[in-house]
Specification:
Blueprint lengths: L15 H13 L4 H14 L5 H25 L1 H7 L12 H22 L1 H20 L6 H17 L6 H21 L12 H5 L1 H9 L1 H4 L2 H22 L6 H10 L1 H8 L5 H17 L7
Helix pairs in contact: 2-3, 2-7, 2-14, 2-15, 3-5, 3-6, 5-6, 6-7, 7-8, 8-10, 8-13, 8-14, 12-13, 12-14, 14-15
């Protein structure tokens, strides 16, 4: 899936340096970084932590791990991409396979070291996150339940953000909500390069976060902020799914990209957001992800 805009007659072509930087951003799937920060914010809030500096370090570590995982994904998938997605930067020759693989290892190591500086709990869950990232990248093309590993990565990010070796019930509940949502969109994403119409059952996983908050925090849904958060999540999810189920051929890539941008809506439900200020933070991260997807594809 091409995330760039088509060339316009008379437009100035990008310089080699700009083209190289954009290739790295594409490999990093950098447009998804606001959703990683949203997960960190949600886990942090669920744990009741207040140190702004600690949150900044946590976001840095998570961003490094996410980027390293995306680099490793493209490095491992280089041969598959040459056959099925030749526009990706490695098979297109815009960046080297060796450079991407080396950067992946360095970023994963650096990300875990930053989490180690955050605290013991973040380091323990961060180490599990590194293992899940590597395992997913190695097996995901040949292992049908691989979306569950991707879901585990986001859930572990929640637990690392919560910062406790034994996380609180709220953090576990939030991790379950984001895991279900990520599993649902990941099962949809498996059809991105096939053009095959997807089965409807992953939609059930996408809606699990709303079911969790309804069961655990029914009073929240009765507040104006809760109703707003639930409506934003539900309407955006259904709007995204129309591309997968009501277009011929199914537009899986745009559907999945839009669902990825909707992760902050899941986080707002999982916390649940206690005031309009917190809701505004999650809404801002959603808007940042959508804006970034105009320049860098999400998948």
């Amino acid at each position: 899936m091409s995330g760039g805009r088509s060339a316009v007659a008379g437009s100035t072509p990008p310089t080699p340096a700009a083209a190289s930087w954009r290739a790295w951003l594409i490999v990093a799937r950098a447009s998804n970084l606001p959703t990683v920060l949203s997960n960190c914010l949600a886990g942090w809030l669920l744990a009741g932590r207040t140190s702004g500096m600690g949150l900044l370090w946590l976001c840095l570590g998570a961003a490094l791990l996410y980027t390293g995982g995306m680099f490793l994904n493209d490095a491992v998938d280089a041969d598959w991409d040459r056959r099925h997605r030749a526009e990706r930067p490695i098979p297109a020759g815009r960046i080297s396979h060796r450079a991407v693989g080396t950067a992946a290892g360095l970023l994963l190591a650096a990300g875990w070291m930053v989490l180690l500086a955050v605290g013991t709990g973040a380091a323990v869950w961060g180490l599990a996150l590194v293992a899940a990232i590597v395992l997913y990248d190695v097996v995901h093309k040949h292992f049908p339940p691989a979306p569950l590993l991707m879901a585990a990565c986001r859930a572990l990010l929640y637990l690392a953000a919560a910062g406790a070796v034994v996380p609180a019930v709220g953090a576990l509940r939030g991790a379950g909500a984001i895991a279900a949502y990520i599993a649902g969109l990941s099962f949809l994403a498996r059809h991105e390069s096939t053009g095959v119409r997807v089965r409807i059952w992953p939609v059930g996983l996408l809606l699990v976060p709303l079911a969790i908050v309804a069961a655990a925090h029914p009073a929240f849904l009765a507040t104006p902020a809760g109703l707003c958060a639930a409506a934003a999540f539900l309407l955006w999810t259904l709007w995204c799914l129309r591309r997968a189920f009501y277009r011929t051929p199914p537009q899986i890539g745009p559907c999945v990209g839009a669902l990825l941008a909707g992760i902050p809506f899941v986080d707002a439900l999982a916390v649940p957001a206690r005031d309009w200020g917190e809701l505004a933070l999650f809404a801002g991260l959603f808007l940042a992800a959508r804006a970034a997807q105009r320049w860098v594809p999400a998948t």
